[in-house]
Each structure stands twice: as C-alpha cells, then as structure tokens.
Amino acid sequence: MASPSVTYTFTNGTVAYGDRVSQNFSDVINGITDGTKELSVARVSVGSSTTGTANVYAAAMDQTGSNSIVSNMTSTQANFIASQVSAAGASAIAVVMPTGGANAIASMITATGANAIAAKITTNSKIHVNTGNGHGSTNTKIRRFTTTVSSSGTDITYADSATDGASFTINRSGLYSIQYTDARLAAACSLGISKNSSQLTTSIATITAADRLGLTGGPTNIHNTLTVLAYLAAGTVIRPHTDGTPDDTTAGSVTFIIQSHL
C-alpha cells in the first residue's frame, strides 16, 4: 500500500493559504481512513509516566504481532522486561497466553529452574518386610520380621526391636495402603493393624477400637491377609498387632507391606 498524498506542497518563504492547508489536512485524514494507505513509523518512545499505555498496546496486539516481537527480542531485553512485570501483570499475561507461548516459556527454563521444580515433585515410599520372627519380649502382641524385602522413599521409617517388635512411623501426612499376611501353625489366631496404640500387650481384638485399623483371623495354619487404606498424619505409628500367637516363619507367607500414595 502507498503512503497518503496531499494536494499542495509548501516551501519556506511562501504564503500558506488557509484553504490549501485545510485541503492538505483533509487529504491526510482521508488517506489514512480509506483503508488503502499505510503509515510507517521509525520509532515510538514511551515514557515511564505513560501508565496504562502499555496495556492499550497489549490489548490491540494480535498473536502475529506478539510472535514478531518475541522473535526479534534478545535475551537481555526479555530479562529486563520480565524484571519489570508486576504480579498482577504476570497474571494478566498468563490468562491470555496461547499454547505456543507456554511452550516458549518451557524452552527457556534453565537447568537450575528445572531442578527447583523437580525438587517439589515427590515419589511414593514403600517398605516391604517378610519372614516371621516371633513377637517383642516387652510388647508381646507386636509381631517381628527378619527380612526387609524392599525399602524406598522417606515417607516411612521402619524399626524392628527384640523388645518392642516392629513399628512403621509415618513421616509425611497422606494416604497409605497397608497389607499384612500371617498365620498360626497349631491353632487359630487373631491378627491386625494398630495405630498409635499403647496397649501393646493386649490382643488386637480387644484394644481400644479407635486404635485398631483392621482385624482378621482364622483356623489352624490358614494364612489370613488384611488390607487397609487410610489417611495417616505425620507422626503416626503403625504396628503389626496380633493376639501373640501367630508363629509362622515362612519367608513368603508372613509379610507386611506399607506404601504411601501422596
């Protein structure tokens, strides 16, 4: 498209008649409003006092214009602009950002930034023990185990004591699944899972109900499996709690598995 043209040309020292000035003014107005002319501006300077002007520019800019600016912007310029954006401004930008804009931001994240994000993402923890090993000598209704099959993460701390039996302390609040399998070889038994119980010499069947997460039992040499899904707060102590009689020592038949699902 061509630039707007005017009817009259003025030079220094000549008289500028009013009707001619008016005609030229009309020519300019008509030229930029008839949709066939364009104006070229070499540079626009915006002062720091022009509050709201940037918002007007942003509102009027289409996606093509935005991409053009980004493609021609140096890293230093981008960093400077970013340092000047307020929290409210950043929120406004995020609201109108197209998918491509989000990808562009992702491609600019440094290794340090990525590591910082990754540090906030945690994985589930799991502890799996097996092989029955009697009960605690003091906590006579708390089962013990010989082998740690697997242990991962930091959400749970496992301890096994000859006097206290086995315990699993919750380090991070969240949803946990627990599975306990056990048996008594010569007669029936009761087994279950207790939470923060202080009745560690009392059968799982008769401890305070609020401290009992689950209870099962069965006849001679029948393996029983109890599965529980519960929200546990940090500091909670979980124990394999029985009536003191389960005595199977088979590696694959006596197991206790606890896992976080956060």
What does this structure look like?
By secondary structure, the chain is of the alpha+beta class. The protein folds into two domains: 41-119, no CATH class; 126-260, Jelly Rolls. Helices cover 27% and strands 29% of the residues. It contains seven helices and ten strands. The strands form two sheets. The protein has a five-stranded antiparallel sheet, with no helix packed on it. Strands 3-4-9-6-7 form a five-stranded antiparallel sheet, with no helix packed on it. A hairpin with a 7-residue loop joins β1 and β2 (143-152). It is rod-shaped. The chain starts with 17 loop residues before the first helix and ends with a strand. 20% of the residues are buried.
Topology, please?
Elements: H1 18-33, H2 53-60, H3 63-71, H4 75-84, H5 87-96, H6 99-108, H7 111-119, E1 126-135, E2 143-152, E3 156-161, E4 165-170, E5 174-182, E6 189-195, E7 212-218, E8 224-232, E9 237-242, E10 255-260
Global structural class: alpha+beta
Low-confidence stretches: none
Mean pLDDT: 82
Measured between the Cα atoms of the first and last residue, the distance is 62 Å
What is the molecular shape? rod-shaped
Spatial order of the strands forming the largest sheet: 2-1-10-5-8
**In this structure, how is the largest beta sheet organized?**
5 strands, antiparallel
| CATH-defined fold name of the largest domain | Jelly Rolls
Short characterization:
It is built from 7 helices and 10 strands. The chain is of the alpha+beta class.
